[in-house]
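Example 3.2
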Amino acid sequence: MRIFTTILATTMGCAFLIVLASIAFGLQGTLKDEVLSSDSLTRIEVYDGGDQPLDIEKIAKLDNISSISESYAMQLDNIQNKATIGANTGYAESSFVNFDALKKAKLPLSKGHYPTTEDGIVVGYNFAQNLLSKEDEKTLEKAKEGEKPKVGIQESVLGKKVQLKWTGKKGTKPVIREFTIEGIGPKPKREWEMNTYLQMSNEAKQSIVTDLKKNFGKAFNEKEMIYKSTAVYATDLEAVPALNEELKAMEYSTYTVSQQLEEMNMFFIALKAGLIFVGTIAILIASIGIFNTMTMAVTERTREIGVMKAIGASPKLIQRLFVMESAYIGIIGTAIAVVASYIISFTANWLIPKILYAATEEQSFNSSAIKFSAIPWELVVIASVISIGVAIVSGWRPARKATKIDVIQALRQD
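Structure, written as tokens:
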């Protein structure tokens, strides 16, 4: 019973270390997948250095650049921007982009191609589902809580005409444009993600901005409502770090996915180290039980140790026997802990999202992509080395005590 409880304590300590550290590994993996799925690895966002504007021609002369894209996002105040296809209407997340640059960067589309004319546009994969008819609005009003009926345009809208309408206060004339959908963006990698953007060409920007200024006057402030961003696309992933350093040397601020991953990895390395340290304390507490068990074993076996010495057993052999016994306790406890940890990890990843989804009804929690716990083989090795190592060290002192037992006194004991 004493040995059983000692193994149980070792199991609990090792399992606590693995499960605790697995939280950091799980969250890191989830965030890493999220970052990699939502951004291009070869994309470098470049910002001017304050007083120094971007010199596109100078940047273009750098090596390992496949394309440079300048885009303009519209964030309009007091001006509504609606898109209409037939009887379906919805708000549009509009922006102006350089389609030639995106094509050179080899950014994929799920259907169609990048437009070559001013009246061609690219829409997000879920753009059509965001456009509702009057029947769709009634369906949503009648839908029960938690129910998500299919609304919007479900069929492909490739090749269809879209009317964009910008409206302001009463008395102002709306700005209306008609475009043709020539490309549809890639399918989101997460079931709960919705890509509802609408991208127009930079060539269409000037005429639309001119009409917005003309029709809405001071209500439209181009500097505050249209935000410019510049992206440099490297030829491949290996070229990103060097190209990023060259842009920084030109006194530009930059942002890359790899840079974000490095910062995130540094944070999680510190978090993992902290959690492993806390878990190690639990194993050290369990080591007290191992020390007590081995000390009692030496005391109870004093006569047997004396007999072994009398028939010629060396002190090293006796020490090795007790160290091996404490090692066995650590090995058995660790093996059980590893199996238990995987069971706990699997259960947590299955159960916690369901609990959070039931409590918040947030669809993102009801996704298999979110992992709250992950146990890589490296974590198993680290935990096993710590657990077994602590067990051996805990048994070393009682083993040394066994070698110093006097043979005559040992044989006299009943």
